[in-house]
Specification:
Number of strands: 11
Shape: globular
Number of helices: 15
Radius of gyration: 20 Å
Distance between the termini: 33 Å
Strand content: 15-25%
Length: 351
């Protein structure tokens, strides 16, 4: 289910768009560099969309470090007080893991006025930092072999298209969203792992591949080796823009999304600048540019969503919650992750 939004005090504080926030540009800290830890892909596009305009507006130079979610989280944990990152852009599950180890601090709402403008699901109280983008789970499919209605049904993976479908491994973001979608559809809810694994085990003989990277699944669909795959919406964007005969559709039931969070490490040396960066990241300007150049779904409703994204997800981008999408509760996922991953390997992908 959708988790509760940030507390009333948090929201009220976000409305305190006091001159103090804009006036902070005169502080000594604002003249220092900002170290940003982010994903290894789309860095050039993100720099053009967000980092360069932020530096132009504030004079704050941004040093970028990249790496996988797990590697960057491990680095934070091992480095301790010597960790250099001031802002960490990271997926929600890993943000929750970091919070469990007390690696992050609460983003101060009174220093991020744009928090008041973003969607409620992006301000979940379960996280110490806001979401700045999100990813929808659904099915990419061949428009020559399937209709949108056929692709939207989970039973597209149940046998009629034997050895012509792919599903994500639990290790990737789409994997957990897929498992929860199956659990909600065939069981008692998104955390009914028994029902999910039992169902997926019956599908396994007809699944050509349980993929672990975006390249794997996009190659499979583009080369015609499969007719459908459970994927994140972003996997379809370039293929559709390039004219491939594919489309993407949300599932008829069990719709779940993942978020990418903007977190401030507990050891951040430039916390004031970190708050200013997050505030800019959540602005309609930055969200619009990031959607255009990076392909990020924006959390600020005032942002402009480009045609390349609406061609894939339609009007879901206007309000994913109204379209039936929900986020997952990290309190349900973090403690069970290892057990679920072990069971998935034994009961579904194992021989």
């Amino acid at each position: 289910m959708i988790r509760h939004a940030l507390t009333a005090a948090f929201s009220a504080a976000a409305l305190l768009v006091a001159a103090g926030c804009s006036g902070s540009s005169g502080s000594s800290e604002s003249a220092e560099k900002l170290v940003l830890s982010t994903f290894p892909f789309g860095v050039e596009e993100f720099t053009e969309a967000v980092i360069d305009p932020f530096t132009a507006a504030t004079g704050i130079e941004v040093e970028v470090e990249t790496g996988s979610n797990s590697d960057r989280l491990s680095q934070l944990k091992v480095a301790g007080d010597k960790a250099g990152a001031d802002v960490v852009l990271i997926s929600d599950y890993y943000a929750a893991l970091g919070q469990q180890d007390k690696l992050f601090q609460q983003v101060a709402a009174d220093q991020v006025p744009n928090l008041a403008k973003i969607a409620e699901f992006a301000k979940e109280a379960a996280y110490q930092g806001p979401a700045y983008s999100y990813q929808l789970n659904g099915t990419i499919y061949s428009t020559e072999k399937l209709t949108a209605e056929q692709a939207a049904k989970w039973d597209v993976y149940a046998g009629a298209n034997s050895e012509k479908v792919a599903l994500p491994d639990i290790s990737v973001t789409a994997g957990q969203l897929m498992i929860s979608g199956v659990a909600a559809t065939y069981g008692s809810g998104p955390y009914d792992i028994d029902a999910a694994l039992k169902t997926l085990a019956t599908w396994k003989p007809g699944v050509l591949q349980f993929y672990s990277s975006s390249t794997e699944v996009t190659n499979l669909i583009a080369q015609g080796e499969i007719v459908a795959a459970d994927t994140l919406n972003g996997f379809a964007t370039n293929l559709m823009a390039d004219g491939e005969k594919v489309a993407w559709t949300p599932p008829a039931t069990g719709r779940y999304m993942a978020t990418n969070r903007a977190m401030i490490p507990a050891t951040a040396k430039n916390a004031a600048n970190a708050h200013r960066f997050i505030d800019y990241l959540l602005s309609a300007e930055a969200q619009s540019k990031s959607a255009e150049l990076v392909g990020d779904l924006p959390v600020n409703p005032e942002a402009t969503v480009p045609q390349t994204i609406t061609a894939v997800v339609g009007d879901i981008a206007e309000d994913p919650v109204a379209a039936g999408y929900a986020t997952l509760d990290p309190a349900q996922l973090v403690p069970t992750r290892k057990d679920w991953a072990d069971r998935f390997a034994r009961e579904v992908t194992g021989s």
